[in-house]
TrEMBL record:
It is a multi-pass membrane protein. The chain crosses the membrane at residues 7-28, 48-66, 73-91, 97-122, 129-148, 160-180, 192-212, 224-242, 254-278, 290-313, 325-344, 350-376, 397-414, 466-486. Coiled coil: none annotated. The keyword Transmembrane applies. PANTHER family: EXPORT PROTEIN, MAJOR FACILITATOR SUPERFAMILY MULTIDRUG TRANSPORTER MFSC. It is found in: Cell membrane. The keyword Iron does not apply. InterPro entries: EmrB-like (IPR004638), MFS (IPR011701), MFS_dom (IPR020846), MFS_trans_sf (IPR036259). This is MFS transporter. Keywords: Antibiotic resistance, Cell membrane, Membrane, Transmembrane, Transmembrane helix, Transport. It comes from Streptomyces fildesensis. Pfam families: MFS_1. Residues 496-522 are annotated as: Disordered.
Length: 522
């Protein structure tokens, strides 16, 4: 137990924080009916967690190097557990969104330390085994998220998707304090880039807020334009701070390297194209097709399962393939899979998604293990840790922006489809996109319900198809960009990576020492 106890402790926390990225998706309709959530509320419930994770990940890793990685992991787990309890007890969407943000802060502290804790404990073959188990557990969390969310929501209540974190957190904290040694970066002069962390967080939050609110207030409104201008200003401040910092959060000179730019673009597009519109797919499955939460979760399993199997096989058979080909082809497959999910109409059922989900899953399985290795190969060894953190940051940011953008696309296309079919096309479209189909039908006179029901099915299918088509374009263009920009030589063996939107980047078993600062066991 003492030998593998640290692995169990780290994997428990990793499983929880990645499960919470996907577990919420299936519970969205029940959250809507319980708290009266709107479309923008649902977007924030999903996005604010990913945003906090993206914005704070590199900063949390830097802070852990100074204060101690075990201490940061335990503190993050405690914050995550407390926020999970508050999410489960939330009386309204404002509290739920706020506590999801706190959850993301705790998750960032946990996620930023997982690989470095394992690297501090295990060496040689044991390290390869530990990283392989960590990757498999992460993939399992992504695959089990929709199923676990469906079982808990249907069997108990949507609040249990958060309550379930409490006993797991207690075990993780107890085991970490008992068997995981403390480690930190040795040597003087290392500082935490608080200014960089703050300005990047401000930029990511403002940009996402502008996109989410644009559908309600209009893209050309003064509020949207002002928020976008503020986001650009925050980005400018971040760039200025990083250029002047002796210990930058992100070395901007890395972006002079075309390969690094290509890998970051691929990481951003990966989560946006593969997962960004899935929350609306789940709403369609449950509120329009009438599937239960469990069945709604099972429909999405082919994506995660195909990704997990492909990653495992790819790690064994594709270790000699160039990164640019593996990532580029994988992103193109994600795009083609999204196109396959865009062929919906008023009469479509859940089976219409299966082929597209499988193709996209194969693409995810190709990209996941290779993207971190490509990032490490595109930078000098002393920047490997920064490159690994940047990959995870861009992936989470891609998911957050994808959910925001595709929500706006779905609602806008629905509104166009509903004009002439219902009195208030704009309000009906936003209610429909937020899971309020039954409420719309309940307010419709009995003699008009059949026609309105057909219009709602047609509108949602149209909105979802348009979002999937845009995701397909993003995936294909990103794949082409990677093929053109990334000049990485032949890949080295990688540990199979998880398949979900919140998944950690696959890390090369042979390159972890470069990706993780030197540590001393204590």
């Amino acid at each position: 137990m003492r030998k593998w106890g640290p692995l169990v402790a780290v994997c428990l926390g990793t499983f929880m924080l990645l499960l919470d990225v996907t577990i919420v998706i299936v519970a969205l309709p029940d959250i809507t009916s319980s708290l009266g959530a709107s479309l923008s509320d649902l977007q924030w419930v999903i996005d604010v967690y990913a945003l906090a994770l993206a914005a704070l990940l590199i900063g949390a890793g830097s802070a852990a190097d100074v204060v101690g990685r075990r201490k940061m992991y335990v503190a993050g787990t405690v914050v995550f557990a407390a926020a999970s309890l508050a999410c489960g007890l939330a009386p309204n969407t404002t509290v739920l969104v706020a506590m999801r943000a706190v959850q993301g802060i705790g998750a960032a502290a946990m996620f930023a330390t997982t690989l470095s804790l394992l690297a501090a404990v295990y060496q040689g073959r044991d390290r390869s085994v530990a990283l392989g188990v960590w990757g498999a557990v992460s993939g399992g969390a992504a695959a089990l998220g929709p199923i676990a969310g469906g079982l808990l929501t249907q069997g108990f209540d949507w609040r249990w998707i958060f309550f379930v974190n409490l006993p797991v957190s207690l075990v993780a904290v107890w085991l970490t304090l008992k068997v995981v040694p403390e480690s930190r970066r040795e040597g003087a002069g290392h500082r935490i880039d608080w200014a960089g962390t703050a300005t990047f967080t401000l930029f990511a939050g403002l940009a996402t807020y502008a996109v989410i609110r644009a559908d309600a207030v209009g893209w050309g409104s003064g509020r949207t334009i002002a928020t976008l201008v503020a986001a650009v200003a925050a980005l400018g401040l971040f760039i200025a701070v990083e250029r002047r910092s002796a210990h930058p959060l992100l070395d901007l000179s890395l972006f002079r390297n075309a390969s690094f730019v290509g890998v970051m673009a691929g990481a951003l597009a990966l989560n946006a194209a593969a997962f960004g519109f899935l929350p609306y797919t789940s709403l369609w499955l449950q509120t329009l097709l009438g599937l239960s939460p469990v069945l709604g979760g099972l429909v999405l399993v082919p994506l995660a399962a195909a990704g997990f199997v492909t990653a495992a096989l790819g790690g064994k058979f594709l270790h000699g393939a160039p990164y640019r080909l593996v990532i580029g082809i994988g992103l193109v497959l994600i795009g083609l899979g999204a196109f396959g999910q865009s062929l919906l109409d008023a009469g479509s059922g859940w089976a219409s998604l299966t082929a597209g989900l499988l193709v996209a899953g194969v693409g995810v399985g190709l990209v996941n293990p290779a993207v971190a290795g490509a990032a490490l190969a595109s930078v000098p060894p002393h920047r490997a840790g920064m490159a690994s953190g940047a990959v995870n940051t861009f992936r989470q940011l891609g998911y957050a922006l994808g959910v925001a953008v595709f929500g706006t696309i779905v609602a806008s296309r629905m509104e166009t489809s509903l004009r002439g079919a219902v009195p208030d096309a704009h309000g009906t479209a936003r209610a429909l996109a937020g899971g309020g189909a039954q409420g719309v039908l309940g307010r419709t006179p009995a003699g008009q319900r059949a026609a309105v029901d057909h219009a709602l099915h047609s509108a949602f299918a149209s909105g979802l198809s348009t979002a999937a088509m845009v995701a397909g374009v993003i995936g294909v263009l990103a794949g082409i960009a990677v093929l053109l920009l990334v000049k990485t030589p032949a890949a080295r063996p990688v540990v199979p990576a998880p398949a979900g939107p919140g998944a950690a980047s696959g890390t090369e078993s042979g390159s972890v020492p470069a990706a993780v600062p030197a540590v001393e066991r204590r």
